[in-house]
Amino acid sequence: MRILLVNHGSADTWGGGDGVQIRETAKRLEQRGHHVQLQNSDQPDVSGADLVHIFNSRVPHAFPSQLAACKAAGKPVVVSPIWINLGRALWGSRGALPVLQKAVQEGEASAARELTLLEKRRLVVAMPEGNLEWHGAGSFHAEWHQQIPGLMHQVDGLLPNSWLELKAVQTDLHWCGDRFNVAHYGVDPKLFLDADPEPFRQHTGIQGPFVLQAGRVEPGKNQAMLCWALRDTQLPIVLIGGTRHWPSYAELCKSISGDRLTLIDHLPQELLASAYAAARVHCLVSWMDTCGLVSLEAALSGTPVVGSTFGHELEYLRNDAWLADPASPQSIAEAVLAAWQAGPQSERPLKLKRRILEEFNWERTVDATEALYQRVLNS
Predict the structure, then answer these.
(1) How far apart are CA 242 and CA 250, in angstroms?
(2) In what order do the strands lie in the sheet with 237-240?
(3) Domains detected in the chain
(4) Model pTM?
(5) What kind and span of H or E run contains 127?
(6) Cα 89-91-94 angle, rounded to 5 deg
(7) How do residues 320-347 score in pLDDT, each as one tens digit?
(8) What's the rounded Cα separation, in Å, for the pair 314 and 60?
């Protein structure tokens, strides 16, 4: 097969799990004898491809034009939607931001009511385009939300990263196709399994235990809420991820945690694996993640993991991690402290590591991917 893998045009600058999935998929498809090309483009050149695989349907300026290019050329299209309800995610990420800013600037008491409304899902978030309620209803992005179901019905095959994601696409976008497969994310054990913590310690000078969160520093990833949740503890926090898209958000995190916070813009994968191993807990209580690939990487390094109740992480983490509500500082603090006290040799991290090795690897991801390609082409 001649396969074109497509991500949005700004993928290089944003990074993320979709880029990792594309690279790992391409490598293994080539090993299996297929001709593979990669393009980060909102208007891809699809000539010469037998099939086009688009990753990430959540980018409004990219997905419609990518799909249009494929349809104009008569190319079959498989989509990895990486879908989460955008209205709900934006409600959480854009709702928590001003509440935490107010708490920092005017004192905790001034924002107590808003924090309670956020946690109880009663906060109404005012956006320039309209208001949002917790379930995603409101006038914000109404046109884009109305457009996505029609676009998704044009695809020839769907490749979500979990059964929970498939259900979300069916529920949110009314998708009722029957050509689909589930391709769970994988993790490379050569990089992350029982990594050595010493290179990270030598690189940073951080010798003691800490709470780690890897990923872009931005409202969707909810690092400021993690900092707020741990403000009355003495736990050091390390955030590894780019800050250039939301520099003011990084400053908010600093203003909450002060000297207990270390911000690291980027690390190569070998040092990132070492950072996971050096951490006492990895926490990702995100509003935007369908899985949280960094949680799987950290777990393979043996680190206890705290995940979010918001996305589709439960399918991966199950009872082998600690879960927290991204809107609740108390929930986050309790989960982090429980994971910290349990430690890496406790039952949950050991079971999660073992299960990731058995269930979540890139070969199995590409098995599911290749099978769907064949089904779409045969149809």
Answers:
(1) 9
(2) 261-264, 237-240, 211-214, 281-284, 305-308, 322-324
(3) 2-84+140-186+361-378 (3.40.50.2000), 86-132 (no CATH), 189-359 (3.40.50.2000)
(4) 0.95
(5) strand 125-127
(6) 100
(7) 999 999 999 999 999 999 999 999 999 9
(8) 27
